[in-house]
Design goal:
By secondary structure, this protein is mostly helical. About 85% of the residues lie in helices and about 0% in strands. The chain has one domain: Orthogonal Bundle (Helix Hairpins). The protein contains three helices and no strands. It is elongated.
Length: about 90
């Protein structure tokens, strides 16, 4: 019984994360300012990270967790670089 509940919960979570990804993509496309687009990109990589974690739990595979760590690292660096570019106009001084 608990296996069925876990699988349905993971499926429902993946559906909700997919909807959150679509909302983030919409904000990235329509966002009125560059700051809104950067925040949407930040939210998008966090949602992608969570989606990979739920896929890793569902498939019982460790590769998804490694990919999630990689996306987390690259997403953080990308957000910092884009924020620095917006503040100063250059990334590397």
């Amino acid at each position: 019984m608990s296996q069925v509940i876990l699988s349905w919960s993971l499926f429902a979570g993946q559906i909700m994360l997919g909807i959150a990804m679509l909302a983030s993509l919409y904000r990235m496309a329509v966002g009125p300012r560059a700051q809104d687009r950067i925040l949407a990109l930040d939210a998008l990589y966090v949602v992608a990270l969570l989606l990979l974690v739920t896929l890793g739990i569902a498939n019982n595979s460790l590769i998804y967790f490694e990919l999630a760590m990689l996306i987390g690292l690259l997403g953080f660096v990308g957000t910092v670089a884009l924020s620095k570019f917006l503040m100063r106009g250059e990334v590397i001084e």
